[in-house]
């Protein structure tokens, strides 16, 4: 019988977990990270399940792996794994993985203050705020983000009919804003969010078929984003992002913040140069900014950036023993 041994750095970005797998990493076929992501999902999804699901992970677990760059102009490539799958892009995951990688010398960028990464969703750049030998903050210049659908009416079983917008910020989000029957996040319990979000996601995917204009591999609504009034006076808005089967993001969610800024920009409420401070369910903040206007296919779009921080919590050697009946992990509920 075989025991697979994985070396990991564990941490969190603004409250949401990040597990950086440093080795061994499987060889992935493909010329781009989108192609390599597809190969990983086809041949190596057992690694994701083993390291993200219980008993080695949990509902909120999120991870990343760094690979050599696909484009010689980049410093590295990044692959994202979590309980919900292998994401095209993950903002908090990038902040956390980069913080731990740079502090531990996992790879050495050409410029330690500006790191260029090939992600499945496209090229991203990160400004690194160093304080001595520690990374105090990371600002990600994310991929182009856009509002895809507005005012989509959904009949949610056991609740009510609601209106959602769908926006893309690296993943597709169903955005639920205050409306009759939903006044604010403060009115929702965690149990409410966990119960209703999968129904909203399923209804959205039944109502519309979505794929990214430049990469048809990126398709379907994967997240639900509940909006609300901020509690922190520095923030412009508060949110709770649902993903996977039972996960609520503890961070303000990087791709969710990007999608939200794209929605607000499309409505004329944000313009290039504007800041957008987003508060999470636990009170942590991402500093968002609309960097520029652009287009994605026929959609008006923005280039957003997000700044946050991360802390390493430990070094982890994980065994996946084939004798273990739960070697492939499990979920409950």
> SSE string, helix = H, strand = E?
EEHHEEHEEEEEEHEEEEEHEEEE
Number of domains: 2
Number of helices: 5
CATH superfamily of the largest domain: Diaminopimelate Epimerase, Chain A, domain 1
The fold-level CATH name of the largest domain is: Diaminopimelate Epimerase, Chain A, domain 1
Strand tally, please?
19
**Beta-strand percentage range:** 35-45%
Gyration radius (Cα, Å) is: 19 Å
Q: Indicate the mean pLDDT.
A: 97
Question: What oligomerization state is this entry in?
Answer: single chain
GO molecular function: 4-hydroxyproline epimerase activity
Family: Belongs to the proline racemase family.
InterPro entries: Pro_racemase_fam
Protein name: Proline racemase
């Amino acid at each position: 019988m075989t025991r697979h041994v994985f070396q990991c750095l564990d941490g969190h970005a603004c409250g949401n977990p990040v597990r950086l797998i440093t080795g061994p990493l499987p060889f992935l076929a493909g010329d781009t990270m989108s192609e390599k992501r597809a190969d990983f999902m086809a041949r190596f999804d057992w690694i994701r399940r083993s390291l993200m699901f219980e008993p080695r992970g949990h509902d909120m677990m999120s991870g990343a792996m760094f690979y050599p760059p696909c484009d010689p102009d980049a410093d590295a490539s990044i692959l994202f794994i979590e309980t919900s799958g292998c994401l095209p892009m993950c903002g908090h995951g990038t902040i956390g993985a980069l913080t731990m990688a740079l502090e531990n010398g996992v790879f050495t960028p050409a410029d330690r203050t500006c790191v260029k990464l090939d992600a499945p969703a496209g090229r991203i750049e990160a400004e690194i705020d160093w304080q001595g030998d520690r990374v105090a903050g990371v600002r990600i210049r994310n991929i182009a983000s856009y509002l895809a659908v507005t005012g989509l009416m959904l009949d949610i079983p056991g609740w009510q009919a609601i209106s959602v917008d769908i926006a893309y910020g690296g993943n597709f989000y169903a955005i639920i804003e205050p409306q009759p029957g939903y006044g604010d996040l403060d009115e929702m319990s965690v149990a409410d969010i966990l119960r209703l979000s999968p129904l909203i996601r399923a209804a959205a995917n039944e109502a519309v078929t979505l794929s990214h204009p430049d990469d048809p591999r990126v398709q379907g609504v994967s997240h639900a984003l509940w909006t609300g009034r901020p509690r922190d006076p520095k923030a412009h808005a508060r949110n709770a992002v649902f993903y996977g089967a039972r996960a609520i993001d503890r961070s303000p969610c990087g791709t969710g913040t990007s999608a939200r800024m794209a929605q607000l920009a499309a409505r004329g409420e944000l313009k290039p140069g504007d800041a957008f401070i987003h508060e999470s369910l636990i009170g942590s903040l991402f500093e968002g900014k609309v960097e520029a206007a652009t287009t994605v296919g026929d959609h008006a779009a923005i280039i957003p950036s997000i700044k946050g921080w991360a802390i390493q919590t430990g070094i982890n050697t994980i065994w996946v023993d084939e004798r273990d009946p739960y070697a492939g992990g499990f979920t409950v509920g």
